Every structure is written in C-alpha cells, then in structure tokens.
Amino acid sequence: RPLSVSTAAFGGECFFTPQALAGNCHTICQKYSFLSGSSAYSLHCYLVCCFGLNLCRHYLAFNSLMKQGIVALHYAGYTQSDGFEDCNEVATELYRKGEKVVGYCFYTEQDLGHILHEDSTLLHFSFGSYFEKPTAEEVGWIIVDELKAVGFCVQWDETADTKIAIKDFKCDKYYSDSE
Question: Which burial class, exposed, middle or buried, applies to 47 when counting CB atoms under 10 A from its CB (0-12, 13-18, 19+)?
Fold first, then answer.
C-alpha cells in the first residue's frame, strides 16, 4: 500500500493551483533562493514564467537536493540506464571537485512521456545511494521531504525497490518549435 504524503508545513494541503503556491511562494522561495542578489519573489516569478509552476517547484526541490549531495537530474536520458549513466557522470565530476555526493535522483524522457501522453498522472523518480550510509531509503526520505517542502503530494512505499512518484503531476508549460 503506497504512502501518500502531503505538505504539513502549509496546513497539510498539497498545492495544485497557482493561487495556492502564490500564497506561500515568498516563504518557499526564500528557503530555496539560490540566485545571489535576487529577491525570493523575483526568483519565483522568473522560474514560473520560464518553466511553469510545477517545473518551478520541481527545480527548487532538485536544487536543494544537489546542495545536500544528491545528484538530481531532470530528463536524464531516455531510459533508466541512461539516467544512471548521466547521474554517475555528474557524481564523478562533483567528487573530483571535492563536493559531497551521497545519492542520486532522476526522471527520464520515458517517465515524462507518460505524463505528456496522459497515460499517467504520476511522475516517477529513480533514486538511490552511492554508499552504505545514508542508505537508499534514507536518500528516499530526503527526496520525499524536499518534494513535500515545495508542495507536491508524493507516493512511495518507503522501500529502495520502488520509485518515488509525484502524484497528479501536470506539465503546465509547453513550448512549440517557434519558442
């Protein structure tokens, strides 16, 4: 039976509308601010304008995971094997630079394709640990906590054998070839 997690920090509600996030964007973006000299509000506006609301939240969570030593990649190749290769390349480069690397998290073109083709409303993430500590399950909880912190509802059975999924994920920004 999958675990369903909501955002306790914001009254136990998951954000599904721009209005819900807008009411909390300053708090969220202050926590995840990463552009020097930018206000949380201007950062939020930039990300939503460029990436759409859901991808904005997704980007903020992945940015925080990277700061915690979890290689977090968007659209990491077409297959899961491609994603592992991409994460391993990034992890190797970070390690060479002396940065902390403990785990990985990614979704692939196939994972996103299920959303775009409306086969599913779950965006699945592969994840794991590069070392014995933290364990893959501990890395999983860090990922779940970050996704919850930016307002996503998450489904996961708390095991390393099952992918983590964002529930009711919708791409809210599409680009045509002319953009």
Answer: buried
